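Here is the promised in-class demo. Please do not try to memorize the tokens; focus on the logic of going from shape to residues.
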């Protein structure tokens, strides 16, 4: 499983970076589970929140740390939850317990308040990671199929390899396969 995952990730190219400021363009979000789960970067202003509302979204789940969301103003009437997860900057090691908690709480929000917008700062690593886990659980498919689906729906998705290994351990729920650190 790990070798297949490594080969799959190595076959992917780096995501394209847009040069126009994010406030001046539409929020680059993608539906992963039709009318249930969308994924992308953190909304940065009223235009982004309006775009989400026009798509029927009024719930959000954040993988950001509180200091990343300084200045974020959630519109009235929205459901919201957050579990902070580390990204490539390695704010702290990814812990299986924290990732499992994020997966459980995001799934509960999807079940109770769909559609949900799942986001991290840029929409490349953390939110796609959770989208893979949610897709696997909610569609009843294995992690590699879920990863391929999320990448197809949201091409900028580039979850960190070691975080995917942790996620695989959580999803398979096999004793002794769930590492306690992200390395």
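The designed amino acids, position by position:
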């Amino acid at each position: 499983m790990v070798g297949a995952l490594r080969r799959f990730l190595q076959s992917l190219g780096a995501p394209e970076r847009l040069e126009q400021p994010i406030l001046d363009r539409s929020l680059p979000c993608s539906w992963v589970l039709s009318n249930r789960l969308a994924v992308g970067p953190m909304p940065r202003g009223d235009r982004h929140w309006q775009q989400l509302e026009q798509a029927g979204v009024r719930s959000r789940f954040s993988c950001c740390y509180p200091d990343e969301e300084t200045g974020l103003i959630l519109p009235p009437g929205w459901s919201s939850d957050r579990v902070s997860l580390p990204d490539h900057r390695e704010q702290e090691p990814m812990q299986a317990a924290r990732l499992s908690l994020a997966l459980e709480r995001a799934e509960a929000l999807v079940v109770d308040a769909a559609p949900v917008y799942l986001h991290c700062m840029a929409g490349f690593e953390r939110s796609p990671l959770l989208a893979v886990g949610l897709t696997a659980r909610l569609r009843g498919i294995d992690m590699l199929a879920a990863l391929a689906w999320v990448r197809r729906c949201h091409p900028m998705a580039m979850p960190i390899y070691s975080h995917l290994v942790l996620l695989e351990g959580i999803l398979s729920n096999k004793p002794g396969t769930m590492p306690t650190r992200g390395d």
